[in-house]
């Protein structure tokens, strides 16, 4: 290469030596000769190296035994693996804390049916009877909550008397005469039917409550209160029978001689691991499954109570027989807990979900409880638990009342005194449980920093009216405040309205807490097609949240 016309011409290696002469026609170039010579020299070198005594078998084995490596060269990878192990170790504790809180939420909603609901029905009927004495000051004869309480009480009484026409003994012997395989299939079918009928049943009850309390000045867009009422009675009755068949099948498994049916039924829980672990789960999916597990565990506890009551009645309330049932009860409870722990541990491992997510779930459930205590709450707490977890207490309460009244005979004045004392004890338990749950819920909401979400309004879009016209209708809402003494109270607070709300459905703040993505949201002022897509996705999540009871089907 010529160096800009200055000095000697240089070769490719930067020296000033002249270039080699060009090869003649048919002769190899000097570069080709050099490459050929280097090939033969390297081949002779390899042959020479192979003959060296250093590359012996002993040296190879010595190198394999003394070979080292440094893990810190891939520190991020091994740190992530260690965190996964720690997450799996934390899952049992965090999961059981969520389960413990959720079970007491279900217990509070279940005790409400036996304790406060009869008193609220009595007060509503007293108001309705004495209304002419005080005059009609309001357009409504009864408040919407009082109408819903009366409907619940009437449905409970009607279904209780209808359950007297169902013979439990005949059902027990009919199921006991079936083979083990048939009973196993029946039990699996009952579990699926329970989830399906629960999801549809809460819609039936909500439709009845709204139809009965809908303002009369609005246009009639329903079939009437009476048809909805009969649909609700039919649903509660059929669901109670379904739960009775489940309890009867479990009772047959307890009383089988070789316990083979009980073992097969418990192994069905481990089959649930196969159907859940190897699916992709997000936070919302895992929240749905956690709520389903809470409901399933509480329902199993009530079924075990029914089985124990029926068995104790057959053995004339002999306390020795209770110790015979105790190992089987422990096996059922232990298998349920073990399956839940293993299932959630591997789901969080495969989907890279931290154990702190269960604290978020617990805070969301606590937020529902705190929101239902506000003066402008749009639903009762027991209905909120029903929608969130798929736990509907009415059918289970009907069955338990039917079993208790048929197993325990009340005769004499002393027996009635015991019943009154037992009822007072239930009320005390309900009040104590509610106070503790409300205090814990306020604590969880504060720890999750969700207090500001209580100040956001709950938008409800009227059919035919845009959401923007209703933004000015809400003037205040309520939140949690702490006074100087440290006590927590629910007070009215001014709200700050959010602008450009895309959703037209009823929005729960706890739903926003879980459906908000982890990263930063995109700007809402993008093109209209993207805005419609995002709002439709959010609406689907909210509809899923209140309609699907049990595991999501992906």
Fold and architecture overview:
This protein has a domain at 76-140 and 246-451. The chain is globular. By secondary structure, the chain is mainly alpha-helical. The longest helix is centred in the N-terminal third of the chain and has 40 residues, at 75-114. It is built from 18 helices and two strands. The chain has a two-stranded antiparallel ribbon. 66% of the residues lie in helices and 3% in strands.
Summarize this entry quickly.
By secondary structure, the protein is an all-alpha fold. Helix content is 66%, strand content 3%. The chain starts with 29 loop residues before the first helix and ends in a 7-residue tail after the last helix.
Largest sheet: 2 strands, antiparallel
Which structural category fits the helices and strands?
mainly alpha
Helix content class: 55-70%
Number of strands: 2
Rounded to the nearest angstrom, the distance between the terminal CA atoms is 69 Å
Helix/strand order, N-terminal first: HHHHHHHHHHHHHHHHEEHH
Average pLDDT metric: 75
Given the C-alpha coordinates, what overall shape results?
globular
Q: Low-confidence runs (pLDDT<50, min 5 residues)?
A: 1-17, 457-554
Strand content: under 5%
Strand arrangement within the widest β-sheet reads 1-2
Give the C-alpha Rg. 36 Å
Task: List the total number of helices.
Answer: 18
Pfam families: DUF747
Organism: Oreocharis arfaki (tit berrypecker)
Main location: membrane
Membrane topology: Multi-pass membrane protein
């Amino acid at each position: 290469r010529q160096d800009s016309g200055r000095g000697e011409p240089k070769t490719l290696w930067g020296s000033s030596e002249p270039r080699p002469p060009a090869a003649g026609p048919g002769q190899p170039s000097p570069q080709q000769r050099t490459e050929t010579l280097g090939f033969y020299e390297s081949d002779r070198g390899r042959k020479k190296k192979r003959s060296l005594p250093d590359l012996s078998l002993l040296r190879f084995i010595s190198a394999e035994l003394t070979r080292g490596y440094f893990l810190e060269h891939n520190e991020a990878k091994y740190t992530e693996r260690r965190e996964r192990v720690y997450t799996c170790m934390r899952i049992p504790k965090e999961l059981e804390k969520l389960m413990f809180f959720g079970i007491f939420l279900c217990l509070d909603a279940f005790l409400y049916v036996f304790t406060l609901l009869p008193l609220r029905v009595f007060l509503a009927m007293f108001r309705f009877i004495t209304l002419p004495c005080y005059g009609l000051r309001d357009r409504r004869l009864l408040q919407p909550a009082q109408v819903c309480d009366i409907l619940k009480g009437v449905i409970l009484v009607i279904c209780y008397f209808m359950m007297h026409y169902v013979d439990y003994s005949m059902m027990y012997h009919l199921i006991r005469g079936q083979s083990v395989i048939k009973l196993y299939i029946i039990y699996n079918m009952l579990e699926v039917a329970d989830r399906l009928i629960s999801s549809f049943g809460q819609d039936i009850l909500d439709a009845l409550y709204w139809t009965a309390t809908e303002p009369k000045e609005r246009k009639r867009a329903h079939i009437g209160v009476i048809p909805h009422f009969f649909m609700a009675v039919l649903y509660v009755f059929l669901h109670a029978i379904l739960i009775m068949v489940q309890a009867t099948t479990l009772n047959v498994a307890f009383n089988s001689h070789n316990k083979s049916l009980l073992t097969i039924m418990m192994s069905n829980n481990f089959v649930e691991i196969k159907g859940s672990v190897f699916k992709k789960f997000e936070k919302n999916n895992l929240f749905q499954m956690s709520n389903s597990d809470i409901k399933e565990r509480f329902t199993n506890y009530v079924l075990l109570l029914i089985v124990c009551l029926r068995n104790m009645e057959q053995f004339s309330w002999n306390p020795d027989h209770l110790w015979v049932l105790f190992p089987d009860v422990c096996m059922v409870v232990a298998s349920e807990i073990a399956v839940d722990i293993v299932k959630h541990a591997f789901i969080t491992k495969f989907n890279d979900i931290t154990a702190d997510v269960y604290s978020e779930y617990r805070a969301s459930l606590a937020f529902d409880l705190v929101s239902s205590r506000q003066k402008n709450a749009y639903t009762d707490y027991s209905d909120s638990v029903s929608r969130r977890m798929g736990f509907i207490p009415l059918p289970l309460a009907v069955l338990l009342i039917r079993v208790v009244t048929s197993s325990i005979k009340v005769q004499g004045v002393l027996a009635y005194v015991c019943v009154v004392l037992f009822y007072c004890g239930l009320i005390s338990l309900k009040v104590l449980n509610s106070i503790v749950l409300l205090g814990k819920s306020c604590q969880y909401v504060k720890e999750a920093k969700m207090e500001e979400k209580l100040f956001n309004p709950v938008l409800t879009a009227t059919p035919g009216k845009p959401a923007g016209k209703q933004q000015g209708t809400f003037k205040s809402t309520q939140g949690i405040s702490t006074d100087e003494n440290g006590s927590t109270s629910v007070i009215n607070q001014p709200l700050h309205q959010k602008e450009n709300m895309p959703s037209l459905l009823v929005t729960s703040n706890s739903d926003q807490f879980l459906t908000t993505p982890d990263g930063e949201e995109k700007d809402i002022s993008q093109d209209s097609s993207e805005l419609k897509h995002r709002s439709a996705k959010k609406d689907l999540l909210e509809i899923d949240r209140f309609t699907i009871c049990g595991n999501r089907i992906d």
